[in-house]
Design a protein that fits this description.
The protein has helices at 14-19, 74-82, 97-106, 110-115, 121-131, 136-162, 167-178, 180-190, 199-229, 237-263, 270-302, 304-316, 321-326, 332-355, 357-362, 368-380, 382-393, 397-426, 436-453, 460-478, and strands spanning 47-48, 55-56, 233-234, 457-458. By secondary structure, the protein is mostly helical.
Length: 501
C-alpha cells in the first residue's frame, strides 16, 4: 500500500501576503499549481471583560487568562456600602417590636433556634447575681449559659447587617461583630487585679484557646457536618491558600516573644529579660495589627472581585436558598437595636462571669490554663461556630471556611495584639510570651489544618481528626498546673504582675 502524497506549499513573497485581503469566513482555496494553501484566519481582537473592565488578550495568545479586577475608588466603595443588596431587603421601615421579636426568636438556622431556648436563663442569671451573691458556683454556671444566647443574638444581628452590604464587606463585618464578645471579655479581664488569679495568664491562654477552638473544633465540626450530608465538600483555593498562609504568619509572629524569652532564660538578668520580652511583645503586636489591616485592604479593595465571584457562586449553591429568600429580614433600625441590646447584655454578663473566675480557680481548683484555653473560648465563639456549621451543612463551605479562618485571623492578628496595646496604655505588663506547651500545640494545629486545606476538599474523617486533637488538648489543659507566681508563665519567664499567685 503506497503512502499518500503530502502536498507542498509554495512560500510566497512576504510583501504579497501583506497585500492579500483577509477573507471572512476564511475559505480554503487551491493555487494554480494544485497545492493547497494554508487557511488564513482573522486574528481575534483584544477584548474587555464586562465584569472587571480589564483588558485581556485573545484566547489563542492567552490560554489561561487572569482577570485582574480594577482598584475600587472611595466613592464606589461608599456607594456599595450604602446600597442594600436584594437578599437584605426587609420591605419594611423603622422598628416593629412584634416583627423584631419573631425574627430574633426564629433566627437564621435550626442550631440558633435551639440556642434561643436559653433566653430565660439570662434574667435568672442577672437576678441571682444580685439576690443570692453567695451562690457563686450557680452564678458562674448561669452566666456561662446566658452568654450563649446573647452572643448568638450578636452574631445574628451581624448576619442581618452582612446581608445588606457587599459580599466581602459582609463577611468582614459579620466576623468583626462576632469577635466583639471576645474583645469585651479581654478588656474586662485585663482590668481585673486579684491575689489568687493571674488574669494576664488567663488572657494569654484565652488568645490561643480561641484560635484553637475555631481552627480545630469549629472547622472539624464543619467538615463532619458537610461529610455527613455529602461524600466530599470542596472549597476555593483563593480562600484556603490566603487563610492558611496568614495563619502560619500569625503563628510565627506570636512565637517570636516566646522563643526569645525561653532562648535567653538564664543568660540575662530576670528583670532585663522581662523588660526586653515586653518590648518585643508590644512591637510584635503593632506589626500584627498592620498585617491585619493589609489583609482587610487586600480582601475589600484590591482583590475584592475574586472573593465577590466566589461568594456569589456560593450563594447559588446554598441548599436552603429558597427558604432563606422567603424569610423576613430585620430593618436597618432593628439591626441597630439588636446590636445595642446584645452588646449591652454581653458586657454585663462578661463582667459577672469574670468576677467568678476567682472562685473557680481558688475554690474549685480549676487551672488557669483550662479556664483560658477551653472554657472562655467556647462561650466567646459560640455564635460564629453555629453560623459556620450551618453554612457547611448547606453546602456553603467557602462561606464556612471564610468565617472560620476570618475569626481565627482576627483573634491572632487583631484581638490579641489589641489587648496588648490596651494593656500598654493601662500600665499592665501584658505580653505575647506564652508557655511552650500552648505555643507548641498552636503551631502543630496550624500545620495540621494547613495540610487538610491543601487539596481544597474535605470529608468527615478530617473533621473527626480535628475534633479529636482539640479534645486531647483540652484534657492536657485540665491537668496543667497553675503558675507558682502571678507574674510567671506556666513554665518560663514572662512579664511580671504586681500580685503573687
Amino acid at each position: 500500500m503506497s503512502s499518500p502524497t503530502v502536498p507542498t506549499t509554495t512560500n510566497p513573497d512576504p510583501t504579497t501576503i501583506q497585500q492579500l485581503p483577509v477573507p471572512s469566513p476564511p475559505p480554503t482555496s487551491n493555487n494554480t499549481n494544485g497545492n493547497t494553501t494554508a487557511q488564513l484566519e482573522k486574528p481575534l481582537p483584544a477584548t474587555t471583560s464586562p465584569s472587571t473592565g480589564s483588558l485581556s488578550l485573545p484566547f489563542h495568545n492567552n490560554p489561561t487568562p487572569v482577570l485582574t479586577p480594577p482598584r475600587r475608588t472611595l466613592s464606589a466603595w461608599a456607594t456599595d456600602i450604602l446600597t442594600v443588596r436584594p437578599t437584605g431587603e426587609s420591605g419594611r421601615r423603622g422598628f416593629n417590636p412584634k416583627s423584631f421579636s419573631k425574627i430574633i426568636l426564629r433566627s437564621s438556622n435550626l442550631a440558633s433556634r435551639v440556642v434561643n431556648v436559653l433566653w430565660p436563663v439570662v434574667p435568672v442569671a442577672i437576678a441571682i447575681r444580685y439576690a443570692l451573691p453567695e451562690q457563686q458556683l450557680a452564678i458562674f454556671i448561669l452566666h456561662y449559659l446566658a452568654m450563649v444566647p446573647c452572643a448568638n443574638l450578636l452574631g445574628f444581628a451581624g448576619q442581618e447587617l452582612a446581608r445588606k452590604v457587599p459580599h466581602v464587606m459582609g463577611v468582614l463585618t459579620e466576623t468583626t461583630l462576632g469577635s466583639l464578645v471576645e474583645i469585651i471579655m479581654f478588656i474586662v479581664l485585663i482590668l481585673r487585679n486579684d491575689d489568687e488569679v493571674d488574669y494576664i495568664q488567663v488572657i494569654k491562654a484565652a488568645i490561643l484557646g480561641s484560635i484553637l477552638a475555631t481552627m480545630l473544633l469549629c472547622l472539624g465540626l464543619c467538615f463532619v457536618v458537610g461529610g455527613l450530608v455529602r461524600q466530599e465538600s470542596t472549597f476555593s483555593e483563593a480562600v484556603s491558600e490566603a487563610g492558611s498562609g496568614l495563619l502560619l504568619t500569625a503563628g510565627f509572629g506570636l512565637a517570636i516573644p516566646t522563643v526569645f524569652t525561653h532562648s535567653l532564660s538564664g543568660r540575662l538578668a530576670e528583670g532585663d529579660l522581662e523588660r526586653k520580652a515586653l518590648d518585643i511583645s508590644r512591637s510584635t503586636a503593632l506589626l500584627l495589627l498592620i498585617a491585619y489591616l493589609v489583609f482587610v485592604y487586600f480582601q475589600s479593595q484590591t482583590h475584592h472581585g475574586i472573593y465577590d465571584a466566589i461568594f456569589v457562586e456560593e450563594e447559588l449553591r446554598d441548599d436552603d436558598r429558597h427558604e432563606e429568600m422567603r424569610m423576613h429580614r430585620l430593618t436597618f433600625t432593628e439591626v441597630c437595636v439588636a446590636l445595642i441590646l446584645s452588646i449591652g447584655l454581653v458586657t454585663l454578663i462578661a463582667i459577672n462571669l469574670v468576677d467568678k473566675i476567682h472562685f473557680l480557680v481558688a475554690e474549685r481548683h480549676v487551672s488557669d490554663a483550662f479556664v483560658g484555653l477551653i472554657m472562655l473560648p467556647l462561650v466567646e465563639k459560640a455564635a460564629e461556630h453555629l453560623t459556620a456549621i450551618d453554612e457547611a451543612y448547606d453546602n456553603q463551605m467557602n462561606f464556612a471556611l471564610s468565617h472560620v479562618l476570618g475569626a481565627t485571623l482576627q483573634t491572632a492578628l487583631f484581638n490579641g495584639p489589641l489587648v496588648v496595646i490596651v494593656g500598654w496604655g493601662l500600665g499592665k505588663n501584658m505580653g505575647l510570651d506564652f508557655e511552650i506547651f500552648d505555643l507548641a500545640v498552636l503551631i502543630l494545629a496550624i500545620l495540621t489544618v494547613g495540610n487538610f486545606l491543601r487539596d481544597q476538599k474535605s470529608n468527615y474523617l478530617e473533621g473527626v481528626l480535628c475534633v479529636i486533637v482539640y479534645v486531647a488538648i483540652a484534657v492536657a489543659a485540665l491537668y496543667y498546673p497553675n503558675p507558682e507566681h502571678g507574674g510567671s508563665d506556666h513554665g518560663g519567664a514572662s512579664a511580671p504582675t504586681e500580685e503573687p499567685h
